[in-house]
Sequence to fold (120 residues):
Amino acid sequence: MSLVSPDGKFLLARDAKGQRWLYPIGGGEPQRFDRDIKPDEFIMGFSADGSLEVRARTVPVEVFKVDVASGRREAWKEITPADPAGALMVFRIVFSADGKSYAYSVSRVLSDLYVVDGLK
Fold:
């Protein structure tokens, strides 16, 4: 995973050990990016305002914005599938440039239960 910031000044990438780094594209020393991203979360990308969009792997999906400079984290959106029945996971979420609209796909498992009475 490597992402370029909206202003084109930084590249966020992982090294061979899985550590996240902010690399200045114009040159300079990389900065270790060790913000509070929990093990069950992953970075979706940069938003238009330069913060990172981070999501949980839950249903409903909690999406947070994390300020790159300060590490300040705030809840941004909660996305619940229109029909949550059997929803196991919400896969890729794509936001519009203004963040007001989004699209996603859902993995679901549905089954039927049959009850039979009176068998001998």
Notes: The chain is about 0% helix and 45% strand. The mean pLDDT is 89. Strands lie at 2-4, 10-14, 20-24, 31-32, 41-46, 52-56, 61-66, 73-79, 87-95, 102-108. Residues 35-120 form one domain.
